[in-house]
Amino acid sequence: MVEHDEAAIIDTGLPKGQEIVDRVVELRPWLRAQQAAAERERRIPQESIERLDAAGVFGLTAPKRFGGADFTTRELHDILRALASGCGATAWMVWAAAGGNLWSFAFDEDTVAPVYEAPWTGNRTFAVAGTSRRMAGTARQVDGGWMIEGAWPFSTGSVHASHGYLAVFYDETDDTKLGMVLVPKESLVARDDWDAMGMAATGSQTMATDGELFVPDEHFSTPKRLTERIGELTARGEGPRRGGLARSLVTGAGVALGMADHAMEVFLGAVGAVADAAVAGLDRLEAEGTDPSERDTLQLHTDVAYIWDACSSAVETLFRASGASAIAKRQPLQLIARNCRAGSLHAAHGIDTWTENIGRALCGVEAQSSAGVLERSS
What we know:
Number of helices: 13
Shape: elongated
Structural class: alpha+beta
């Protein structure tokens, strides 16, 4: 973790990145328990939003002048990874919605202040900064502002936000004439059309205007002007951390890693449960002073074969996913994969043999005993 000036931390009173990670880890059981409900509802449940808000999650990238924590790239990455280990869709929503805060650095203070100073629970903003007309609306200039109209699909974070930053084209014939407007969400229509096979809980619905909507001049800007202003603020130490889109993408990789962490935990827990049951069974027989029956031994042998096959298959998948560099002898994964596969091919662990034998026993057909298979000559 990057070192910070201790006095600065004391002066701001803002949490450190590790503190947010610790709070997220405490929320992990809750987030995991809510995943199914979140998918059914196609949005993050309100109570989850409230708990995340209390943990400080929605201030990850907010401007410092409005209470943002100004975390490093490493801190953001680690927070999102911890969050995704609880619920991947929740982490995705937090990550995507945090991008809207970048635009908040660029608009004038008087324009943005009401967004952050009003009481609110959840992410303050969402953003749809599409560069194609399919992902943006249109705008025409009028006295004192602009009339905008359109629909903005994939508005991740719009369910719980108070405001949206929306891309608009303000010239029908020139695709370089792109603007960005800040609009209260209450002035938009939520189409509730997000129903996807994955990330369903992100609530990435389409937001639209109901006809034309007036936006005052101070709520309109262009990417060029916004970029220039962010550069000026950053030079004075008042802007966002450097990196822009690249930084957002890199921190978002923590979401993938967090889901992988959870998947590995679930897999090892399930396979380990089979081993734990086998161990408990033998311990129980030991306590009773009896040996396992032939049928007990056959079942235990099949359980062990399953464990070896599942683990070697998982390791092989990890090996293949690691790319060509994994074949180098200095890399441990290639050795782990070869050794685990070799162990799974041992006569004691052959999954095909032992599933056949347990199947024979279940059908009342004579099966090879464990000793018979192990002592069989080649």
